[in-house]
Design goal:
- The protein is an alpha/beta fold and about 375 residues long.
- The chain is built from 15 helices and 13 strands.
- The strands form four sheets. Strands 5-2-1-6-7-8 form a six-stranded parallel sheet. The chain has a three-stranded antiparallel sheet with strand order 9-10-11, covered by helices on one side.
- Helix 1 crosses helix 7.
């Protein structure tokens, strides 16, 4: 079996997380990725601890299957080298602030003249237009300004800092992938490439989905702990006797009936569907008191045999070592170098095909270790 994207060639100028995550997926699925890095200003992802096998684990993961080429883009000869080779490439990914690639002479307008089939994707915090386009930001800023943080978390304690980079990955990386692959399909008909302007804030704002649909229709003002799915109903996390948590999501009648029966809580059937704040509070209080009566392990054993949409909250280590992770292949062994018997455990590409296959040739390379013929 071969990769679904075999034959595509990508020139990646991005750093940190959004662009590299997107180009890693492209590489996993078979595309050839040439990662251009500065020889004097290392990608910060190379410096973030922890480390394994002599380098940062995040770098080893995000840059697997890619050739690392060290080029100083301030040197005119290197710009000319890229221009001479650009006809070989299908896709360019860059993550500089607006205007940087134009100053370097590597902007879409310039490179498209040399390769009209080129698909060029720019990933930025706030996009290429608008008053925010030159503003600095990080994931938490994009989540804040997108409206997501404003209706998440607890009414008293406010929005939580997430353990994942929602705007970087779900916003920037995955939307960039959708756009790039859509442009590849469109090119089959037009014969032409095009420019993609991916704003992490634009994209993460779209994840508001159902909440935004309601708000734009003028139906509700989204506030923390007031809606069905943001803590305003019994759909929530509940602490066990030993301080751990269960996730309870028994929304549909058949699941709610099963939950009410196993917990012996008829109030669930009487008031869980109510939109009255007082009723919802009574239901949550009843669930809180009941679930605190047993340990996490005891509840896990009980609910494992039931199909009522209740699951234990796992630590990351527990999740990666779970039967589900093994059955679904969440973790793979990636060679340290092409053909090496030494490997490093990494998250697998989660996309499963019936014919194509993801590849895991080697972990992220040392700076400049790659080859670019």
């Amino acid at each position: 079996m071969t990769g679904a994207l075999n034959g595509l060639k990508v020139l990646d100028f991005s750093t940190l997380l959004p662009g590299p995550f997107a180009s890693m997926y492209l590489a996993d699925l078979g595309a050839e990725v040439i990662h251009i890095e500065s020889p004097t200003r290392p990608d910060l992802i190379r410096l973030f601890p922890p480390y394994a096998n002599g380098q940062a684990t995040s770098h080893s993961y995000l840059n697997r299957n890619k050739q690392s080429i060290a080029l100083d883009l301030k040197q005119p000869e290197n710009i000319e080298r890229i221009k001479q080779k650009i006809a070989e490439f299908d896709i360019v990914i860059e993550q500089f602030r607006p205007g940087v690639m134009q100053r370097l002479g590597l902007d879409y307008a310039t490179l498209a003249k040399l390769n009209p089939r080129l698909i060029y994707c720019s990933i930025t915090g706030y996009g290429q237009t608008g008053e925010y386009k030159d503003r600095a930001g990080h994931d938490i800023n994009y989540v804040a300004i997108s409206g997501i943080a404003g209706h998440c978390g607890r009414a008293e304690s406010g929005p939580p800092p997430m353990g994942i980079q929602m705007a970087d990955v779900a916003g920037g990386s995955l939307h960039a992938l959708v756009g790039i692959l859509a442009a590849v399909v469109e090119r089959q008909h037009s014969g032409l490439g095009q420019y993609l302007d991916i704003s992490m804030t634009d994209c993460v704002a779209s994840l508001n989905s159902m909440a935004a649909a309601a708000s734009l229709a003028g139906q509700v003002s989204q506030q923390p702990e007031q809606e069905l799915l943001n803590g305003g109903s019994f759909y929530d996390y509940y602490q066990t006797q030993d301080g751990r948590y269960l996730a309870v999501a028994s929304l549909e009648p058949q699941f709610l009936s099963g939950l009410a029966a196993v917990l012996d809580l008829p109030i669930l059937l009487e008031k869980a569907a109510s939109t009255e704040t007082h009723d919802r509070q009574l239901v949550k209080q009843a669930l809180t008191e009941k679930i605190r009566q047993k340990t996490w392990a005891e509840w896990r054993h009980i609910f494992q045999a039931l199909d009522v949409c209740v699951e234990p909250v796992l630590s990351l280590e527990e999740a990666l070592d779970s039967p589900l992770a093994e059955q679904r292949g969440w973790v793979v062994q990636v060679p340290l170098h092409p053909g090496s018997k030494e490997t490093e455990e990494q998250l697998a590409c989660p996309i499963k095909f019936s014919r194509s296959q993801s590849r895991y040739q080697f972990i992220g390379q040392k700076l400049g270790e790659g080859q670019w013929e």
